[in-house]
Amino acid sequence: MSASPSPSPSHAPSPPFPPQPPPPTLATSAAAQAVGFLRQLGAEQIAHPGGTLLAHLCRVYRLLAAWEARPALRLAGLCHAAYGSDGFPTALLSLDRRAELARVIGPEAEEIVHVYAAMDRKATYPGLATLDAPLHDRFTGAVRTPNRSRCEDLAELTAANELDLARVNPVFREQWGPDLLALFTGFRPLLSARAWEDVGTTLGR
Fold first, then answer.
1. Full-model pTM
2. Pairing state of beta strands 47-48 and 135-136?
3. CA-to-CA distance for 65 and 158, rounded, in angstroms?
4. Helix (H) or strand (E) holding 106
């Protein structure tokens, strides 16, 4: 009895396909684009506690993700230093380039970045958790009243930013920990449960 002929290549059994990774979510895709954009702007070359500015921005993004912040707030955290801030004046973009950042992370996330950058912290923080909280704009000198949701965004982003610094820099934590704990205690009505829990873990209560 002759052996059965081998199947021709066109009729050979197909090997099973390897499992395909799930398609990236919009937030993941946007975050990857944002990291590339930040690299182009030089964030990886700027020194910052814990390494570089880019490393800090990525840690803030991951912390907000761990707190289950919505995608726009995570992306704002990733780019929160784009225009500089009251605590870190080095800007990667001038304000006349806001549209560029909005194309990368979306208009909602860009608006959070802009408000965070514009916020005069000394004048705004004490009343941020109050009804009709005034936000003092350090760029224009104007005073405006953000809605409650935006105040929550600012508080959550501030917590993620400062807690990251406290985690990676013991000197910073020793010097500023008590003041930050007092600040975030005042912010408590605005903070998510996960953020408040990390305040206690990082700063003690």
1. 0.85
2. unpaired
3. 14
4. none
